Amino acid sequence: MSRRATSRPSREHSGSTDTHHDTYSADGRKVECMRKRVVRVPQIAPAWDQGWLDVDQAASVEVSSEDQNYPIESALLGDEQRGWHAAEPGTQTIRLIFDSPQRLKRIWLAFEDREAFRTQEFVLRWSSDVGQPFREIVRQQWNFSSPGAVREIEDYAVDLVDVGVLELIIVPDKSGAEARASLVKMRLS
User: Fold this and answer.
1) Contact assessment for residue 92 and residue 63, using Cβ atoms and an 8 Å cutoff
2) Distance from C-alpha of 122 to C-alpha of 130, rounded to nearest angstrom
3) d(Cα 142, Cα 138) in Å, to the nearest integer?
4) CA-to-CA dists, residue 166 to 52, 63, 109, 115, 132, angstroms
């Protein structure tokens, strides 16, 4: 006799089904099986499905350097393929100054470098207002090494209340080499 399984749904649980399988061995004996449940795990919405903050309407931006072919608007508002590039090598700062205090729940960042081998560090921090002390959210390092590790995506779940200023400081090469900072995309919700 061949193995066969029969199943019967026993009860429904919000997106899951309990199932019991009767399984038989090759000689026809019933084999004990565990009760199991297949559950549907909700997925975190990908970056493009979020209700992102319209930064153009909610804030002004300050940037320490900007390549005219890769303006900051490309990273904050526009085409992910272009992004922002610094005009000068070295540490760069992108600062969003909100028109009114914001509550931030998610910060999504994307960096890319297909040419250089380097270790980048960035610091993301916030303040309740211009001139007030900053509080660090995260300090992160990433090793860019083509062709394998050319894109860094960071997705932070936060609960920040009364954010007046959000600042991203990028050290493009921790070794001190003359690398230019870049940011493919920044999204906030």
Assistant:
1) yes
2) 20
3) 13
4) 15, 12, 13, 29, 12
* Domain shared by 65 and 157, yes or no: yes
Same domain for 19 and 100? Answer: no
Expressed as residue numbers, the domain containing 99 is 47-188
Question: Do residues 112 and 181 both lie within one domain?
Answer: yes
Q: Are 34 and 66 in a shared domain?
A: no
Same domain flag for 102 and 15: no
Block means of pLDDT (10 residues each) for the chain, 189 residues, are 44 48 67 66 51 94 96 83 92 98 96 87 96 96 82 94 98 93 95
Structure tokens at 45: 């919405």
pLDDT reported for residue 62: 97
Matching residue, tokens 């916030």? 126
- Same domain for 106 and 139, yes or no, is yes
Nearest to 30 by CA among 20, 45, 15: 20
If one counts the domains in the chain, the total is 2
Q: Supply the pLDDT for residue 5.
A: 43
Per-residue tokens: 102: 């914001």
What is the 8-class DSSP label of residue 43? P
Whole-prediction pTM: 0.73
